[in-house]
């Protein structure tokens, strides 16, 4: 009457789904701990609520918040409906929105001439020479050093050691691999940094933003987040094979500013949903450049992420694949539109749900901002559908409001579409640059290694090219 193995499969499948959504917790666990126990209490959050909401640009009271977003959705939908006759790019075919392709602008002859002149005048520089000069000019190496804090204890030239350390971790070779190629000139222990590379990177970013050329590209308030697959060794805790990328490796998540500099980088498994790491990367950015607008692709968005980003004061404007298949939500079931009514169907926002759980939303957002709970852990739970998790349902409902507003703007504002395409192309161009730079560092049959025959200050480099060894992770810091 009962197949035991079938019952076990059902029980453990259900348990796995409940653990992923946070409906079941494991006592003493990190990844699957009880979320409610990690969040700050309302007594702790109440004194911080006013300042937090002011920074995010939203009301503090639940009723005012609902009225604020309802008015925003009403205004945006009415504007798009009224402007539909003049919107020559948007066509509704059987109730589905279709945007006509716009022809991109050609590069001007002056831009092509400038590019050619730069290539002619820009001399070729060694990567290690660039690192050494940047260290001298910005002083990023001040974050490194022995645990005792005494630089004189470093054998030989301290600056040379710091440059080699940045190279080891910037190229993701690691201390042990670089030390092996240095043939006894330096040990892996001497190159260990204990996670201080991001502090050094913040100094370089701050110095870069002071350059005149950085202001020509952008003001740093916009960032594009994208992941790029990187081949790795199979014997790696973060590496895995994934059908989407057709190879074995990991995912380099990069946060690229509109001024063409990476504010933060993170290495994640290929199977991870990129949207989970978006908020975490922005909160862990230690530089003076603090963007408030996020651009990503389809992997960088979900309904809970839209909601959480809005509460934390970030505007999420992703480039979504198959966006015309997504649901639009009405402000109320009785709201009708003359031209774009077919976009919405029978979907309407449940404002009562948002108002009822506003305290839970606020507690969660403040706890993330104060570092009491990781946004990665939270979004892993919120990224899995749950009928019982009230926090998931509240974030999802708020995300429906924000995403509907974003999609309506996307349909009606050609300038916004062009901006989204431009900044996401910058992130993809940075991936190409990092890949080119990584090949220059590692070397292969077509490109020589930059370490071969190179000498650091007071440190003799190995003459053995790195190119003969398996390719490690991507070059992020450099």
UniProtKB/TrEMBL annotation:
Boundaries of every Tn3 transposase DDE domain copy: 129-443
InterPro entries: Tn3_Tnp_DDE_dom
Superkingdom of origin organism: Bacteria
Protein name per its UniProtKB record: Tn3 family transposase
Lineage of producing organism: Bacteria, Bacillati, Actinomycetota, Actinomycetes, Streptosporangiales
